[in-house]
Recover the amino acids of this structure.
């Protein structure tokens, strides 16, 4: 991301590239909704809180889908939040269906579209048997690819279909002489009995897609490496390989490696503390969040500053009865 | 959930064109709502604050604008009157003013001359607003303290920083005019950048494997000194001259020659290289009188 060219970009382009206006506009509309409290609270302090929560990635909690998917940073924050909130599901080895994972997603983002969950499940389950059970990590990594690279994958699907149908994808302009050769070579592939498309041609199309795309794409070098082992590949094979590739996961930067997915000593400690607390209490939580000492904004920005803790203990019941959001704890996760 | 619904409703854009009567009435109400919202933003000073913040972002072009904005607004909270329950009339204490001035001068890179100069003005003002004295101003003590803080420990070799500060320091009780202030601060920033560049240069010289060869380092330093030395930089052509002396061919020749000398290969540490390179820079700094 270190890019000195930001210094020479025109102002509006720089702001758009870094999504500054997206956040500024959102901050102002949040401020308007809370305007009764602002007078005693201070506008500058409100903005400070807002941008700090964006920086920490806690700003997408309980927000509408259009905002959650608005920027790459928001998407990564959402993935991280999802992982942190529900990692116990994986730790306990529970297997859930797509529908159940969708309910978990909706606890964090109430209007999360089912379509995305289904697409992610399809990566794991290979089209059929959509009511099968999936492990948390399988679903999580497939979901990550589907959610974070959603626009990229849509374009790839179109390219794949074009290649499969034997036409050179009209979305792709490769200004080299080799593209002409490929076009000529294309028709015989058409009637090939093999599954999928030729990998090298597929990769060329992806590369030029990544060059042009204004949406996030996985790093081409990694995709190349990933594709180098096979002669031909199918779209679902491609998706699965993307989801399983550790390098791409690392480049995306939202989740830890697969092996470390359930390692989080600090969180475990906190959970234990919480279990101890909760076992002493009844389920009903204190109604006010004023217990958050030294955390002024908590009252005004509930969705930003209160991590969702109680879910860990009631994960499956919650999946059915969404919408109970008690706050119990002032510490951060 | 209810709060969420409310938020959604508020976030939804007002319908652009009503089809029926009821629809248009609702649109009207929404428009009025928007009107009062704009008024609110204007009256509460949100509009001005947002504009100011965006201008600062555009000036500084930070790599991470969100973090930059968080820090920016935090400073605004800290510096606003009444923050922390203090009486607004009392001017902020010396440490706060210094911290704030430091923040200002670091906001924009010095290559953004206009932005940098603006921020420099703000820092100067901020330091001189002591309130107790009738004629505010920045004295030598405050100025030196700011310079010391800009060259925070570790950013550049210590004795080189000391040598630089000796050259551009004023006496503690002297009033420091803005020109001198600007010159001093700018020089410190250039030194820091020079040090960083020299560090990168050393990384190249050592080839990523341990300490670099002393002969090669010496050759590079000599070429650098030669390029900088004995030239009067008020004449533009000198810049070209220096640039050509540091061109790859000249430098490569010098390094090659150095390697061919039959001397025992000794290493030069990074510290030593940085010290020597930065000393060359400091030697070229014009002292203030």
């Amino acid at each position: 991301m270190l890019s000195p060219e930001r210094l020479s970009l025109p102002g509006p382009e720089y702001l758009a590239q870094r999504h500054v206006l997206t956040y500024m506009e959102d901050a102002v509309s949040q401020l308007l909704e809370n305007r009764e409290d602002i007078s005693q609270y201070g506008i500058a302090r409100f903005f400070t809180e807002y941008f700090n929560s964006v920086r920490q990635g806690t700003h997408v909690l309980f927000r509408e889908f259009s905002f959650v998917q608005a920027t790459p940073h928001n998407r990564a924050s959402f993935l991280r939040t999802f992982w942190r909130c529900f990692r116990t599901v994986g730790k306990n080895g529970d297997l859930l269906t797509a529908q159940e994972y969708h309910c978990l997603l909706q606890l964090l983002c109430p209007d999360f579209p089912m379509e995305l969950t289904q697409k992610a499940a399809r990566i794991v389950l290979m089209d059929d048997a959509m009511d099968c059970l999936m492990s948390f990590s399988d679903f999580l990594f497939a979901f990550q690819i589907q959610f974070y690279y959603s626009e990229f994958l849509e374009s790839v699907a179109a390219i794949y279909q074009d290649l499969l149908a034997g036409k050179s994808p009209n979305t792709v302009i490769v200004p080299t002489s080799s593209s002409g050769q490929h076009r000529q070579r294309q028709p015989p592939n058409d009637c090939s009995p093999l599954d999928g498309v030729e990998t090298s041609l597929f990769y060329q199309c992806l590369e030029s897609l990544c060059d042009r795309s204004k949406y996030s794409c996985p790093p081409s070098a990694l995709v190349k490496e990933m594709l180098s082992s096979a002669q031909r590949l199918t779209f679902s094979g491609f998706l699965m390989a993307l989801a399983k590739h550790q390098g791409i996961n690392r480049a995306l930067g939202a989740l830890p490696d697969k092996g470390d997915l359930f390692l989080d000593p600090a969180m475990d400690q906190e959970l234990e503390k919480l279990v101890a607390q909760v076992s002493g209490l009844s389920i009903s939580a204190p109604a006010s969040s004023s217990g958050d000492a030294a955390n002024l904004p908590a009252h005004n920005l509930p969705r930003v500053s209160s991590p969702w803790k109680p879910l860990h203990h009631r994960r499956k019941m919650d999946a059915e009865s969404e919408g109970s959001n008690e706050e119990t704890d002032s510490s951060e996760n | 959930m209810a709060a969420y619904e409310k938020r959604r409703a508020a976030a939804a854009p007002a319908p652009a064109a009503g089809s029926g009567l009821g629809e248009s009435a609702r649109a009207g109400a929404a428009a009025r709502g928007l009107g009062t919202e704009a008024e609110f933003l204007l009256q509460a000073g949100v509009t001005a604050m947002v504009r100011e913040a965006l201008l600062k972002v555009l000036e500084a072009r930070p790599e991470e604008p969100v973090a930059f904005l968080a820090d920016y607004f935090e400073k605004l909270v800290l510096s606003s009157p009444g923050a922390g329950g203090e009486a607004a009339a009392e001017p902020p204490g010396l440490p706060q003013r210094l911290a704030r001035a430091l923040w200002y001068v670091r906001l924009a890179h010095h290559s953004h001359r206009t932005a940098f100069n603006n921020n420099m003005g703000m820092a100067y003002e901020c330091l001189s607003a002591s309130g107790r004295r009738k004629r505010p101003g920045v004295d030598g003590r405050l100025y030196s303290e700011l310079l010391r803080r800009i060259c925070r420990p570790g950013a550049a070799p210590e004795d080189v920083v000391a040598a630089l500060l000796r050259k551009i320091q004023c006496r503690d009780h002297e009033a420091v005019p803005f020109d001198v202030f600007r010159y001093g601060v700018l020089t410190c920033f250039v030194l820091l950048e020079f040090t960083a560049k020299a560090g990168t240069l050393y990384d190249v010289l050592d080839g990523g494997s341990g300490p670099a060869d002393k002969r090669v380092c010496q050759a590079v330093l000599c070429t650098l000194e030669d390029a900088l030395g004995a030239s009067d930089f008020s004449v533009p052509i000198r810049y070209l001259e220096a640039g050509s002396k540091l061109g790859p061919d000249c430098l490569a020749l010098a390094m090659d020659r150095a390697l061919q000398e039959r001397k025992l290969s000794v290493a030069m540490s990074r510290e030593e290289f940085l010290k020597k390179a930065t000393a060359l820079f400091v030697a070229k700094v014009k002292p203030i009188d």
User: Anything to note?
Assistant: Strands of chain B lie at 212-213, 267-268. Chain B is about 70% helix and 0% strand.
